[in-house]
Specification:
CATH topology of the largest domain: Heat-Labile Enterotoxin, Chain A
Strand order of the largest sheet: 1-3-6
Largest sheet: 3 strands, antiparallel
Helix content: 25-40%
Radius of gyration: 19 Å
Order of helices and strands: EHHHEHEEHHHHEE
Number of helices: 8
CATH architecture of the largest domain: Alpha-Beta Complex
Number of domains: 2
Number of strands: 6
Strand content: 15-25%
Shape: globular
Length: 190
């Protein structure tokens, strides 16, 4: 049995609709799970997708529950972290995807336009935490001598951002409905 978590911020859909009753249903369950759809889901937070985001980390789910709602949780109106247990093999019509593997299988060859960045090593701190480390994300890239070219932030591709965010969030994506029977707890968070 694999254990996953999902945060539900105050006044979000899964805060107002108890998944212990309905299960987790993706908003666009009929959409094909393509790599571009997966990257948009992770990078841009696209909710109209065939995916339900899960995490292996209670801490990530807690952070999402506290910080991703439309208002801060309180004792009278808590956010929630759901605990989800999925058997191996998973229930029928449910597939789990590791976004790192899925994106990596679709990366270009080393001679094609790169998915990597061209910034300093600290640039990745800005990808992991774009608000707290904005200076690393927006610092001009270092140019080879003699320099003098146009100043711009380092190149950040959708592929790289999806890989980094999936690692940061210990993310696993479910394709299909997660049955209510897999949801074993809903913890109030405030």
């Amino acid at each position: 049995m694999a254990v996953f978590y999902r945060g539900a911020g105050v006044n979000t859909y899964w805060h107002n609709n108890d998944a212990r009753i309905s299960g987790f249903i993706p908003l666009s369950s009929g959409t094909t799970a393509t790599v571009n759809c997966l990257m948009d889901h992770i990078v841009y937070g696209t909710v109209s997708s065939p995916f339900v985001s899960l995490t292996r980390s209670y801490g990530v789910a807690w952070d999402y529950a506290v910080n991703a709602g439309r208002q801060r949780p309180t004792p009278n109106n808590p956010a929630y972290v759901y605990r989800i247990e999925i058997s191996n093999p998973p229930p029928i019509n449910l597939t789990l995807l590791d976004p790192i593997k899925f994106v990596a299988q679709n990366l270009p060859s080393a001679l094609d336009p790169p998915y990597q960045h061209d910034g300093m090593p600290s640039f990745l701190l800005g990808v992991v935490d774009p608000i707290g480390n904005v200076k690393h994300r927006s610092a001009p890239y270092t140019q080879p001598p003699p320099g003098g070219g146009a100043s711009r932030p380092p190149n950040l591709t959708t592929e790289l951002e999806a890989l980094v965010k999936a690692l940061r969030d210990a993310e696993i994506l479910a394709v299909g409905t997660i049955p209510a029977s897999c949801i074993t707890a809903r913890y109030p968070i405030y």
